[in-house]
Amino acid sequence: MGKLIDEFRKGWQGAAPPSLGLSISFAIVCLLAATLVRWGLAQVRPDIYFTPYFPAVFFAAALGGFRIGVVTALIGGVLGVVLNFGDAFADRARFALLALYWAVCAITIWGVEHYRTMLAEQRRISKRLIEEEEYRKLLVEELQHRLKNKLSTAHAVLHQVLHDHPQVWARVDPRLRSLAATDDLISRIDKGGCDIRDLLISELGPYGHVRFTLNGDRLFLPPKLAVTLSLMFHELATNAGKYGAFSSPRGLLQVSWTISDDRLTITWDETEGPSVDKVSEPGFGTKLLKSALSSFDGRTEISYLKTGLHCIMQCRIPRSE
Questions:
Q1: Reduced to 3 states, what is the DSSP secondary structure of residue 317?
Q2: How far from 183 is each of 58, 69, 97, 176, 221, CA to CA, in Å?
Q3: Strand 299-305 with 308-316, pairing
Q4: Cβ atoms of residues 55 and 112 within 8 Å
Q5: Domains of the chain, earliest start first
Q6: According to the model, what pLDDT value does residue 253 have?
Q7: How far, CA to CA in Å, does 59 sit from each of 12, 24, 47, 70, 109?
Q8: How many whole angstroms separate alpha carbon 193 and alpha carbon 291?
Q9: Dihedrals φ, ψ of 45, to 5°?
Q10: pLDDT digits (tens, 9 = 90+) for 26-47
Q11: pLDDT digit string (tens) for 256-301?
């Protein structure tokens, strides 16, 4: 019984075509139910011949398809003419109603079949998209694994080469660690998001925890916003390591954030770094910082002060993704 119910459910949902026996049995049940309804209505209106069979045709066609629907419509028409639950007998008016009944049934069956075809196509496309998504996830995970191995190899090789140059290695090592941390972080937060403090610690930790301070309440970032901010923080941290606060022994960084309604404001403030005398033409990193938050109704303001770089990032926190 359970197997029969499961087959009926899958057939009704369009997941799998039902067997011919189930389709015929269901059509018979629909016709019997329609005839019973017609008998009940005949106690009040004996001139109702075909109306109760419309639902029978619809449900039979929805489960069994075009052929079952046509057969059900034909049998329903015959029953409407042959069976009499009153004193009325078949006349020209009833045959005229029969023609009208079959015409409406034809339209109904066509509509149901058209819907079934669209549903089957939708399921086929959904299945293909799901398979492609699973393949994409597998490919991305493999690429992330290989990238992580390559970064580890590059880190080990450079460590051996620069073993006798500790000052150079001290400048290279944090950047490699930061790059590896960013790649690993993006692969993790792309699925579930993360807290902004954990995000900043992961990005800035390789440069030394005494070089930066974080001020702000705990704030969980949705996945898309977390990925976007991680790219921006990585760009700012890399620039700080090359030209800003992290490139100077006394340089410090303070990152603070506040929330007002659904608006997030992040302040990136570098101090005690090298003075910026001349600003070069905007590159890819600057363009990324300027445009990354546009999809979150946000903007970025960058100022090059005598004390160091000052950046304000503002955006809307999505309610759900």
A1: coil
A2: 56, 58, 72, 11, 17
A3: antiparallel
A4: no
A5: 2-130 (no CATH), 173-316 (3.30.565.10)
A6: 93
A7: 9, 12, 24, 12, 10
A8: 21
A9: -130, 95
A10: 899 999 999 999 888 888 887 7
A11: 999 988 899 999 999 888 877 666 666 677 788 888 898 899 999 9
